[in-house]
Amino acid sequence: MKCQIIWIGKSRDQWIKQGIDEYSARIERYVPITIVELKDEKDAACEEGKRREAERLLKQISSNATLIALDERGDQMDSRQLAQFVSKLRDAGTSELVFAVGGAYGFSDQVRNRADKLLSLSRMTFTHQMVRPFLLEQIYRAFTIINKEPYHH
């Protein structure tokens, strides 16, 4: 299984970039990972802007990929549940697992409808920038749980 992370907008802050680099390198020990940053729309507060972001995002996803879209309306899982979810996908032969993080105004319905799962990291609100290292850390944690490593305790 390979893992792809797609997000809308550039990662700007240095500490965010450091977190992304750190955890993507850790994930790489378990699965190949690619991160794609897509241009955000200046008018993403309106539906047309979100539609254009969605078109760019959906072009990056192969038809056989499993898409997990991070969305405030999504299901919440604890770390062990995420590990079980990823493990089941892997064991079922999923070849490509894609996690998508929307821009500042979230996703259009196009993305939500394509998603195989909507996932919420928390009921709290985080910036779309901060979610990036949080997501990567949780993916890394899931693989350590799957491999029965002591990182998660």
Structure explained in plain terms:
The structure is a single chain. The chain is α/β, with parallel strands linked by helices and 153 residues long. It has a single domain, classed as SPOUT methyltransferase, trefoil knot domain (Alpha/beta knot, 3-Layer(aba) Sandwich). The longest helix has 16 residues. The radius of gyration is 15 Å and the shape is globular. The protein starts with a strand and ends in a 7-residue tail after the last helix. The mean pLDDT is 94.
Largest sheet: 5 strands, parallel
| Mass-distribution shape | globular
Please tell me the overall pLDDT. Answer: 94
Low-confidence stretches: none
Write out key terms for the chains shown.
single chain, 153 residues, alpha/beta, Alpha/beta knot, 41% helix
What is the topological layout?
Layout: E1 2-8, H1 14-27, E2 33-38, H2 47-59, E3 66-76, H3 79-91, E4 96-101, H4 109-114, E5 117-120, H5 131-146
Parallel strand pairs: 1-2, 1-4, 3-4, 3-5
Helix pairs in contact: 1-5, 3-5
